[in-house]
Every structure is written in C-alpha cells, then in structure tokens.
Design goal:
The chain is of the alpha/beta class. Strand 25 (629-634), helix 26 (639-644) and strand 26 form a beta-alpha-beta unit. Helix 14 runs antiparallel to helix 17 (472-479) and helix 17 packs across helix 18 (483-495). The two termini are 56 Å apart. The strands form ten sheets. The protein has a seven-stranded mixed β-sheet with strand order 13-12-26-25-24-14-15, with helices on both faces. A six-stranded mixed β-barrel has the order 31-35-32-34-33-36. Strands 18-17-16-20-21 form a five-stranded parallel β-sheet.
Amino acid sequence: MTGTPIRLRVNGRDVATQPGTTLLEACRQHGIEIPTLCSDPRLKPASSCRLCEVEVEGRDRPPCACATLAEEGMVVETHTPALEDFRRAMLARLAERIPVEDPARLAGKPFRELLDTYGVAPSGARRPGARHPEHPYLDVDLSWCVACGRCVRICDEVQGQNIWTFTGRGGDLALAPELSPGLRESACVSCGACADTCPTGAIEDVSRLAAGLPDHWVRTTCPYCGTGCELDVGVAEGRITEVRPVIASPVSRGHLCVKGRYGWGFNEAPDRITEPMLRRHGVWEPVSWEEALDAAASALRAAQASGGPEAVGVLASSRATNEENYLAQKFARVALGTHNVDCCARVCHAPSAAGLGQAFGTGAATNSYADIERAGLLMVVGANPTENHPIVGARLRQRARSGVPLIVIDPRRTELAAMATHHLAPRPGTNLPLLQAMANVIFLEGLADMAFLGARTRNQETYADSLRAWTPERAGALCGIDPEAIRRAARLYATAKPAMIFHGLGVTEHRQGTDGVAALAHLALLTGNVGIPGGGVNPLRGQNNVQGSAQMGCEPSRLTGYQKLEQAKEVHAQVWGADLPQAPGLNALQMIDAAGEGRLKALLVIGYDPLLSHPGARETAENLNGLEALVVVDLFLTETAKAFGTVFLPAASPFEKEGTFMNGERRVQRVRRVLPPKGNSRTDQAILAALAERLGAALRFAHPDAAAVWEEARQVWPAIAGISHARLDREGGLQWPCPAEDHPGTPVLHAGSFPEGRASFRPLDWTPSPEAPDREFPFLLNTGRSLFHFNAATMTGRTRNHELRADDELELHPDDAAELGLSAGDPVQVRSRHGAFTLRVRPTDRVRRGEPFATFHAVAAYVNLATGPGRDAVTGTPEYKVTAVSLHPTADSKVR
C-alpha cells in the first residue's frame, strides 16, 4: 500500500498516511489510540461495538474509524466530550453483563483497560449455561461475552473453520460452537485464535487462568513444522505459561496452530532427562558431565582406532538450530575426520532437493508463502497442509473459499481435496505416470509457454519426445483416474497463470521420489510458472529446521549452503584451518546398514530417533545392535537410546538456546532463549565444543556464542553473507540468497536466470513399486501425520494434545471395514511382507477401498515394523507411502 501520502488533521495535529488506510489505522500510526472492542488488525472492519466513532468535519453523524478510509484534507476529532460520554454509556451497558466475581479473568484484557479508563465497573453475574464443557486448552465461559463477534470472525476469516456462531437475538444474543454442544465435539482444531482475539476473557487459555499474566515475553520461532511461525512466549516464575502469535509475522500473520500455540508442555515434562547418563550393566546411571563426555569421546576415539574415520558417524538434528547443525557437520569432518554425517532430510525431503536441483539448479522452494495470495491457481500434491502445515493450510483454504482454482493430487480425500476444483486420487505409487500425463496434455495441446521454453530451458525436445507415450489413457489406467479428469486438471493448471505448486512427503517418500519432484518442476517449466510471483514449486518442509540442517551441510556429499564437496571444500578448509576428509561419506540409512555389517562402530545421534523413524524397524534394530557405542544427545530417552544407547547427553530444548531456524521458504529467523537450560542440560553447541576439545579440536570449536558460529557460516556460504543475527533482530526474517548487508533477500528464485543459465528437462521413466497388492496382501497402505501430533510425538505426546487425539488410527473405507466385520475402534492387525503392527480402525470415506491410511505417532503402534526396504534410487529416501498389507481383525484389546 504505497502512493502519494494523504494529509489530514487529527485533534489539531497534521498527520499523513498512505491511501487505503482506515482512520483507526492512521491514528494508531501517530500514537492516537481510539477505543474499540470489535477491531483486530487481522480482521475486516465490523463496526459492531461503535466505540471507535469519531467526529469528522462536514459529516452529520460520527462514523466508525475502523471502517472509514482516511481522505485528503479530512479534519477529525477523536475524543470530544460527546464522544467520551457516548463511549462511557456504551461500556456501562456492556458491563451490566459482566460478572462481578472472578475479576482476574479480565486481567490484561482490552475490555478491562477500557473499563478502568472510563471509570466503569462490572455489575453482572454468571449466567446459567454459559460455561461450556472442559477443553484441554480453552476455557469458555460466555458470562463474560459482550457479543463483539471477534471470535466468530477470526474463525471464519483467518482459520476458515467457522466453529463459532451467534444464537438468540437482542439481549439473549450468545455464542455457541457451530452445531455442537462443545468444542471437543465440534470441528475445532484448537488453534486458539478465538481466545487470542477475545477482548474480555470469555474464551481464555486454560494456562493463563491457572498461572496468571506472564512476567515477561520473548519472541522466538516455533519448534514444530517447517512453516516457521513466530511466537511470543510468556514466562512466569521461570516457566512458560502461554504462547501468542505475532501479528506482524510475514509467515503466520498473527495465527498459530494447536502445536505452536499450546504444544510447549514438553519443556517441563517429568520424564525429561536433565543429567548426563552412562549405561552400565544394562542400566542407565546419572554421572557428571566430565565422566559422560570422557566416555563419549573415548568411544568415538576407540572406533576410529579400530576402523578408521569411516567407522564413526553423526546423525544431526532437524530440530536443532542452523548454528548447531553447522557445528555438527563440522564436528564430523574436522573432529572425527569423516563425511559420515546426515540429518532427517534423508527420510523426508532429500528428493525435493535432488529433483528441484536437477531441473532448476537449486534444490529449495522457488517462492514464498506470501505468493499464496498472488497465485491464480494452487496445486497441492501429496500433502495435507491443513493438518501437517496448518498455517499454510489455512491460507490455502481461504484462497480456495474465495474462488481461486485448486487442484489436489492425493490418494486420500483430505480437507483441501474435498473443496478442490479438481481432486485427482492416484493409486499409491503412481504419481509419476499422472504428472507425466498432465505434461503430455500441456505439450501436445499447445498449452506450453513456448517463449519461456525457448529462452530459458534446454533438452525440451528430448523431453517432449519422451512424453508422447504418456497419454492420459495409459496413465489413467495405471492411476485409477478417468483420463478426462487428467486432461481437465492439466488444462486448468496450464491456463490459470500464475500457478503455484506445493508438495509434500506424498511425492518424496517413494522409490521414484526424486523423479516425482522433477516431474513437478517440469510442469512449472512447461507453463512458464518459474521465476514469477505466485508460481513455482514449493516443498512443504516437515520439521522446523529440516531445510536448515541440510543447508548447513549435514549431508555426506554436500557442505554448507548445500554446495557440492568438490566446489566448496577449499573455502571450508581455509576457514576451518583443517583439511577435509578424502573418503566419501555414508548417508543416514547407509550408516545404519554399515553398523549391521560391522563397518560403522560408533554413532553420535543428535535429536534423531532412527529406530522409531526408519523403515523396517526390526532390521534397523538388528543393525544398531552391531554398534560398539551409541552416543545420544536429546531431551528424552528415545527408543534408540532406550534400546542401544551407551552414553546420554541431555540437550537444551528449542526454548533454551539462541540461534536461527530456516523455514521452508528459505527464510532465516531468530531463535531466542526463553529460559535457561533445564537442570544440567546443555546446548548442542556446548556439547559439541566439549567433545571436540577431548578429540583435540578445541580451537576450531571455540565460538563464544551462536552469533559467532553464524558469522563463520557466512564466510563459507555467500548466499547468506548479508544475513547477521543483528540484522535479523532489527528487520526480522530474511530469505536467501541475501549476499550483502544491503540486499533485501530473495522472495522469488530464478526471476532472471537459473544458476546454470538454463533450466534442464530430462526424460523420466516409471518403474512400478514391488509393493504391489496380491492375494496374500490385497491392500496398499499409506502413512502420514495427523493434526494434533508431530512425527514420533516426542514433544506433542508430552502435552495435553494427547487428550485431543490419544492414539494412532487406521483409516479404512467403510466397505472394507464391513467386509472384515470391523467397527470403529476395533483393533486390526496390519501385516506386510516385512512385519506387522496393530491399530484401531476408523471407518471413513477419506480413503478409497483397498487403500488404508495409518498415522505413526504412537510408540506403542510402531507402524514402521511393517514398512519395507524400498528406497529412492537417487537419495535413498525410504518408500514409506506404499506398502502391500493384509488386515486381520483381532480380539486382543491391547493395541501395540
């Protein structure tokens, strides 16, 4: 919103603002506060409370400042005696509804401040039936409701869930969860937006009512998914008591999901480990830091002595900061002398980096979340963002509700699929034929952007020839989709420019995950949807810093900046003052394989649980059992630590450290210490420095703080040279490439050129997965996350989220359930060629017949007992999304 400033006069002062600004905003910009109850900067003006009425010269009636645009030459008075008397009378009328008892409920609320300012006191009483059933996070007592409507509007306009509604009329006007007696029974996603906007405390966080107002607030970045929402964290008496969204955050725009807003309870979990431990005679014993570090360093040194540097390895953490991951890969290469270092990107989005890198030359998101509101079409492939990336999902939902075309490609009928213009549901494992057929239609029907292809791509002729075999009829037969549906979706994507693609693990976690991502990149290139706002191909990253951990160099063949070893080893060696190893490194799955073969003898695992996370849990366990030493750095005793750990070093949580995270749109954001490390836990930086000292590399890890580590990373990766901690503190998050201090960052990649000059096409051949159904295993199992939990539930399982979703479930089509004699909640054993697990059934038409879906959060379920050994041919990423299974009803009440 820029243009020639508008000048007006307010309360005798000359002020200026931009065109399109409301009077309320213009006054606030100049420190003039106008009372209001129904206004929220995240919402459209409602003018329902009327407290923001102002006098405007030349107008007969005072307009509401929240809904009146500033105009050139306007003369405004905001606090005349008549206006103040009107406001006092309005507040007195509202105060008659507010209970006299429990005044603490109003503490810190805008309504309380207005009452105090105007000398008005509550004079009402609690109303029968106004208190709603208990919810883990939200306390609802509508005795305090003044019917401002903010909860109704924020649930509609921001979250898009439409949970709250008004009932009754006049003096009986009240709120209620839509079509439901309580929030738990409604479609509420527990995002807390209603409590955040409520000006009276009628809807309030349970934690605030229990702990009172925070002593202070600290701004940091969410430790859950890769969206990168900013948080204001409230602290009272040395404990986190509440979290609020940051209104001005460019990522989340004043919104949070249930995990970001309420999922901080793990920080004080009673089973959190805060003392170092050694396993002696099969039992964990607390020891001093000196003894634990000596034991860890000795084990690593012994492994090197018996098997060379290739006998040790490091698994870094996508939950840790950029700075800690930078040190983890440096520790592997400098202190241990090996390229055996990796992170959890290997088991999720490594194919995104590879596929996008092959096509575009850079393996990262091309665009920004801000482009969701610029796109002329949205295509979501193999992702369920309303559950797994809820803030992005809410923005996508709102755009679809506004009429923007939406294509969803997913075997399941997700929330977005249910409202999509076109929902294409391919059989699991057939993404590539479907995407190839869409490209076939675009190319052969003359819908490609030939000017873009000629100017900015290469190998298009060879690629075009390879597409001719991929007719919609051929692909449709393989995918189980009507060929005409493929044609309609392809035509829409090609013609509704700019078109923006988001994809998730439903694309990457396949044997041809890299090819699937490349096929998406090809679609964007064919239509010229690269290098423009509102376009591109954008991976929805899973963990909070999975993008950063890979970019920091936690990958065997890449260094900081995801730079190839051969290209960047000299500058790293120069900055580090140490030569890099010569022998190639192993990735995460290869390291586990090598442990089983006796080649890898010691492993340092930081914030990673391979036993629970990797496919083929039994084989993973057998391999880990081959290690001589397993050093674990974590907050809790993970399944890997419980079974095979020899040394446990307690880590500081994301709320207890300084540094940065990097979100899925390449945005680097600050992480700030909210609390000191709990007990005797330490940051990864401190732990790695202490281990490096014992391994003879102390000087190369003697960084005084996280900012100093980041400064070193800036020296070896030119794309972040312009991003410093100090600049992030001043300006907020910045997107790389940002090569200089005066560079604004790069919201859209490839606007003028590609790193290698031109983007590259390549023919893609499809290879069917061996995980095909047969008479013995007639079902195809798919797996994924759910809204209320995160990955292995290491954090969310230690919060009240478990009250909102206690167990994993097997989604099963009702007809399949009926044939097997299964009802909701019945246990069923899921067997594959590789193993078995048991879950309770949830009949739903979200899945097709023969294609059950399992979540994998609960340790008790151990879904990875059944997933197979298939891996992406390029990156080694496991084939989690396709497993042939059989289903067997069981009388056992114990689900395990």
